[in-house]
Amino acid sequence: MNAESKIKFVAIDKTLFFPTLKKRVEQYFKENHKSKYADKRMVLKTIVLLTSYALPFLAILLLAPDFWISMVLWLVMGAAISGIGMSVMHDANHGAFSKNPTVNKWVGFTICLAGAGVSNWKWQHNILHHTYTNVANLDEDIKDRGVIKLSPHETVKPFHRFQWVYAFFFYGILTLYWVLLKDFIQYAHFIKSGLNRQTKRENRGMLAGLIVMKLVYFGIFLVLPTVVFHIPFGFILAGFLLMHFFAGLMLTVIFQLAHSVEGTQYPLPNPEGVIEKDWAVHQMETTVNFSPGNKWLSWYIGGLNFQIEHHLFPKICHIHYPGIAPIVRKTAKEFGLNYMEHQTFGMAFRSHIAALKKFGMPGMNDGIV
């Protein structure tokens, strides 16, 4: 039996918070004659982001700009792929892009534009992170990676006191690590843990698909420009690494600002494997919104600044989060729950730095649950 199947949420004090909230949100869509899925704005965003990813690469291949101009184009690609990951792929793989599962499936494959596999992402994100948010050893997003400590329940090592400085370098290499190693490490880990319940035949097919996808990915980005278009390999490698560093930095920082900040809780199950909270209350206590009034940021990061709404309603397209946020805030207040929110990106970023410092200092994590 895998570890997460043993952990359950059992509320000591029963609450009608989520049933009440769910009913009100459903009423919002009904009264405003809206679908909870994507609309024309989302379709336009998808086109803009995909175009912003493809056109710079075509320009690099066909126009052969000088080194520094090509670096700018690679940087644009990095911004585009992180936007695709946060806005397009993310919604689709939650089933929130379209009511048609086939559309969600194919749009979800845009994760391959970053060289990553979709199945592992769904297990890591949809199941582990969304169910067991900020629960040590279950939530992969705060899992102890040795060099960075994102939970108060992991052993503090001497170098962790400096993690608030060096963490951002490791954030930047996240997507490159994902392309090269993470998919294969997770493939083996999820089979061993029992989270991946596919048959051996299905897993052989999945592994073959991962290998082929990554060979095609590296072929297009590293071999094609050099062999066919005769662009110096050093130029291409530098740009490829820059693209991944920027994308990794953006993706990781945005996700950390919602959970690894001051004020969030890091509960542990009791010896019986029970977290004595209602699941929705747990989400409220482990999740923080930021920059709710910044429409440009919200557009680019796929509404992940409305992380509370996303965690409570992951199957609703992110373009609707600003509309339902007042409902969530009001209902939380009625039930005595804290609706945590940083009003600006800067406030959230500083709070993340403070959390990194706290987690990295011996004795600073006492009392955190």
Automatic annotation (TrEMBL):
Keywords, in A-Z order: Membrane, Transmembrane, Transmembrane helix
Keyword check for Transferase: no
TM segment ranges: 42-61, 67-85, 106-123, 164-185, 206-229, 235-258
Residues annotated as domain Fatty acid desaturase: 68-341
Signal peptide start-end: none
Listed Pfam families: FA_desaturase (PF00487)
Coiled coil: none
InterPro entries given in the database record: FA_desaturase_dom, Fatty_acid_desaturase
PANTHER family on file: DELTA(5) FATTY ACID DESATURASE C-RELATED, FATTY ACID DESATURASE 2
Name of the protein: Fatty acid desaturase
Species name: Dyadobacter beijingensis
